[in-house]
């Protein structure tokens, strides 16, 4: 029983990491309609940037973290400017954006491999100190992950529903052209979306890096999980992604409990296939009319 | 000379893969990232039959083709309901599930250890071993497969597929059974991918799941994007370019450790540039939109 609760808790913490990435992914995908797989590249890149600053250069956390978040934001914005914007100007479909996104992911990961090698790296030497709650154990980083998620989620939801920026973001989700026609600088908002989305992703990368270490291939599975979480939570509902992510995290821990750790990735894809087939609008999404629904 | 043979054999395998994926992507207009899954399923079915049950190459090949075609229904039937980005995600899901199964179902596939000691195919008294014989054999198989695919593309089946790609509604209005056509396309393409998988398994005499990852699927898809879709010459050129290009790096004196990464960087870059500047690829007919 204790093992079950411990695994459930670990699953929930994993879910929090997925949720951070998924919120960024959903922010970008809901407003620009692009399945931004280069997000995985941003994730890996920021993990290595943090590794360079924190472990190699011995900068304190208070400097290394903001620096990494800033660099990730710049990378995200650069990806939009160099990759997606020109495609959009040519009226190319989001499919092409998605494919070039995959191409960019391959490039980023291999550049990292060339400089840092293929092997995994540990950011913090030695064991992390742990805290006990009843019979359950959590390490410091896991507690930080939980706290970060709560703060980010609260700020995210409050911004989305109680500020002018949130109204603009929701308007951009519904109709970017109309938003621009109403005198809002949609291009600037788009850059902002990419910057914030990438920073959230970097935050998750830093926290997992501190917890379990990094290797060049960490990005893709997290990002695919985030994409699945977004679909499971509901396209068009920004916070739905976080719900979907927590759900996948917990389901994965159940798979670990019942089967073995080898099958935990399988859960993600089974969730994806089931949702695509049975409930394409996701947990929180509304079933729109056929012509509004886009591709599903 | 052996090096040259090896390159040609790999090109042959990849031409079969890219031509068969072209049936789905270029003719059917469905961008799918799961071809390496079919390639892997074919290789594993055939290999397991040969290694565990002692079958010879030809019957194993036949069962691999049929088995892979049947398993393709798992992805093709659900995917009928998905379009665009969601279809890609669905196919990625299928690809990943297949990889995880190959990797973790250790009782059947030996997981990460892979299967070694795959017997060379033999016909009557002729045992296909050694590079020159493999060169002849793989080229023959490649030609037979290409002939089949060319025939398919020029047949009414291919024309219907093209019409579905251009305008699904119009094709349906002409009385074409669109779901059936899509399912058939997937089954055919999966069957050809199984042939490529068997060639690969027989040639390498060792397979493990890492040859059939999602990145391999992206690699095969990028052959079509780079070479061009919707006709024969596009995918063929794509396969040749992507297999030969990294070998050229070797002649530039690049160390092997960097060359592997450099090869991936080059094809990622080529994909981005071609999508931007020439969406129909080098020699393609069909423009991805």
Kindly list the characteristics that best describe this protein.
heterodimer, A: 296 residues, mainly alpha, 2 strands, 74% helix, B: 289 residues, two-stranded antiparallel sheet, two-stranded antiparallel ribbon, 12 helices, 4 strands, 75% helix, globular
Give the strand order of the largest sheet of chain A, numbering strands 1, 2, ... along the chain: 1-2
The assigned structural class of chain B equals mainly alpha
- Span from first to last CA of chain B? 42 Å
Q: Distance between the terminal alpha carbons of chain A, to the nearest Å?
A: 41 Å
**How big a fraction of the residues of chain B is strand?**
under 5%
Number of DSSP strand runs of chain B: 4
Question: What percentage of residues of chain B falls in helices of 4 or more residues?
Answer: over 70%
The gyration radius over C-alpha positions of chain A equals 19 Å
Helix content of chain A: over 70%
Note the run of SSEs of chain A as H and E. Answer: HHHHEEHHHHHHH
**Helix run count of chain A:** 11
Describe this structure in words.
The complex is a heterodimer of chains A (about 300) and B (about 290). Chain A has about 300 residues and is an all-alpha fold. Chain A is built from eleven helices and two strands. Chain A has a domain at about 15-220. Chain A has a two-stranded antiparallel sheet. Chain A is globular. In chain A, about 50% of the residues are buried. Chain B has about 290 residues and is an all-alpha fold. Chain B contains twelve helices and four strands, in the order αααααβββααααβααα. Chain B has helices spanning about 1-25, 35-55, 55-80, 85-105, 105-110, 130-155, 155-165, 170-175, 180-205, 215-225, 235-250, 255-275; strands spanning about 115, 120-125, 125, 205. In chain B, the strands form two sheets. Chain B has a two-stranded antiparallel ribbon. In chain B, helix 1 (about 1-25) crosses helix 10, helix 6 (about 130-155) runs antiparallel to helix 9 (about 180-205) and helix 7 crosses helix 9 (about 180-205). The longest helix of chain B is centred in the middle third of the chain and has 27 residues, at about 180-205. Chain B is globular and about 55 Å long. Chain B starts with a helix and ends in a 12-residue tail after the last helix. Chains A and B meet through helix 3, helix 4, helix 9 and helix 11 of A and helix 4, helix 10 and helix 12 of B.
């Amino acid at each position: 029983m204790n093992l079950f609760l411990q695994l459930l808790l670990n699953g929930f913490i994993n879910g929090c990491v997925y949720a951070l990435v998924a919120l960024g992914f959903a922010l970008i995908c809901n407003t620009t309609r692009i399945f931004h797989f280069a997000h995985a590249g941003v994730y890996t890149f920021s993990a290595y940037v943090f590794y360079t600053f924190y472990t190699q250069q011995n900068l304190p956390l208070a400097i290394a973290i903001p620096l990494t978040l800033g660099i990730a934001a710049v990378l995200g914005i650069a990806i939009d400017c160099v990759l997606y914007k020109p495609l959009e100007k040519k009226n190319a479909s989001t499919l092409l954006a998605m494919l070039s996104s995959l191409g960019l992911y391959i490039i980023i990961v291999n550049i990292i491999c060339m400089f840092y090698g293929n092997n995994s790296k540990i950011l913090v030497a030695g064991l992390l100190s742990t805290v006990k709650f009843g019979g359950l154990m959590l390490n410091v980083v896991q507690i930080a992950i939980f706290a970060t998620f709560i703060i980010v989620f609260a700020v995210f939801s409050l911004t989305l529903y109680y500020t002018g920026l949130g109204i603009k973001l929701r308007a951009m989700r519904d109709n970017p052209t109309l938003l621009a026609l109403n005198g809002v600088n949609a291009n600037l908002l788009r850059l902002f979306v990419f910057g914030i989305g990438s920073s959230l992703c970097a935050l998750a990368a830093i926290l997992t890096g501190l917890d379990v270490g990094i290797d060049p291939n960490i990005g893709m599975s997290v990002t695919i999980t985030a994409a699945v979480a977004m679909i499971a939570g509901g396209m068009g509902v920004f916070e739905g992604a976080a719900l979907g992510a927590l759900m996948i995290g917990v389901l994965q821990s159940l798979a670990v409990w019942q089967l073995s750790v080898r099958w935990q990735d399988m859960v993600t894809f089974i969730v994806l296939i089931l949702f695509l087939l049975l409930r394409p609008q996701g947990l929180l999404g509304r079933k729109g009319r056929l012509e509004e629904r886009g591709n599903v | 000379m052996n090096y040259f043979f090896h390159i040609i054999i790999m090109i042959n395998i990849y031409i079969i893969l890219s031509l068969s994926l072209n049936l789905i992507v270029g003719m059917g207009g469905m961008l799918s990232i799961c071809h390496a899954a079919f390639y892997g399923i074919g290789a594993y079915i055939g290999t397991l039959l040969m290694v565990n049950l002692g079958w010879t190459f030809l019957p194993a090949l036949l069962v691999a083709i049929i088995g892979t075609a049947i398993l393709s229904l798992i992805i093709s039937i659900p995917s009928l309901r998905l379009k665009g980005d969601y279809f890609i995600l669905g196919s990625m899901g299928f690809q990943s599930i297949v990889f995880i199964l190959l990797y973790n179902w250790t009782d059947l596939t030996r997981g990460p250890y892979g299967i070694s000691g795959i017997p060379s195919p033999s016909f009557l008294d002729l045992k296909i071993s050694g590079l020159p014989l493999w060169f002849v054999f793989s080229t023959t198989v490649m030609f037979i497969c290409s002939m089949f695919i060319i025939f398919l593309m020029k047949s009414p089946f291919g024309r219907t597929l093209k019409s579905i790609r251009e305008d699904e509604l119009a094709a349906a209005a002409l009385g074409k059974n669109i779901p059936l056509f899509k399912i058939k396309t997937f089954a055919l393409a999966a069957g050809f991918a199984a042939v490529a998988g068997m060639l690969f398994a027989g040639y390498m005499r060792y397979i493990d799941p890492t040859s059939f990852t999602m990145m391999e699927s992206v690699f095969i898809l990028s052959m079509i994007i780079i070479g061009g879709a919707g006709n024969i010459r596009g995918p063929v050129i794509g396969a040749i370019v992507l297999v030969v290009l990294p070998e050229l790096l070797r002649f530039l004196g690049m160390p092997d450790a960097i060359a592997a990464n450099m090869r991936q960087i080059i094809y990622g870059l080529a994909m981005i540039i071609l999508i931007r500047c020439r969406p129909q690829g080098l020699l393609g007919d069909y423009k991805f939109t």
